[in-house]
Design a protein that fits this description.
Blueprint lengths: L2 H32 L4 H20 L3 H14 L2 H4 L6 H17 L12 H26 L11
Helix pairs in contact: 1-2, 1-5, 2-3, 3-6, 5-6
């Protein structure tokens, strides 16, 4: 068996595994959609993205590996994990982009030559969503409550 055949076979195996992992990540999002603060679903999502990052790295799919790692970095802080359900539309968009990237890998060369701007834009939108969510409780506690009307007045 030639090295090229082995490389193509390894790429195919990676793509199959990556699709399985993406399906699992999407199931985590569906679970979070039904049960908002489920820590098991959050853990599963992060573990799945971490595994996908490792496997992509081993297959020299740096764009996919880096995007998965960056997603994990954004989602890892506890305050973000507690609010993943509020960021579901952005997370779904990230997983859709990953699915498209898997489809766009050249089956003969294993190359994925894409501009990372869409990845960066989605990550920024996700981070912005979490910044807004973190600011909301601060606004609520920073605004003093109006005094209660006096009884009998």
């Amino acid at each position: 068996m030639s090295d090229t055949t082995a490389d193509i076979s390894a790429l195919h195996d990676f793509q199959v595994d990556a699709h399985v992992l993406l399906t699992r990540a999407q199931e985590c999002l569906s679970h979070l959609d039904l049960i908002g603060h489920d820590t098991d679903a959050c853990d599963c999502l992060l573990n799945t993205l971490g595994t996908l990052a490792e496997r992509a790295h081993l297959q020299a799919q740096t764009q996919i590996a880096d995007f998965c790692r960056q997603l994990c970095h954004v989602l890892e802080p506890q305050q973000c994990r507690a609010r993943l359900h509020a960021a579901l539309p952005k997370l779904k968009a990230c997983l859709s982009l990953l699915a498209w990237q898997l489809e766009l890998i050249d089956p003969h060369t294993g190359q994925l030559n894409l501009d990372p701007q869409e990845q960066l834009a989605l990550l920024e939108e996700l981070e912005q969503t979490f910044r807004q969510l973190h600011a909301e409780p601060a606004k609520a506690t920073a605004t003093p409550a109006a005094p209660a009307p006096a009884l009998g007045a």
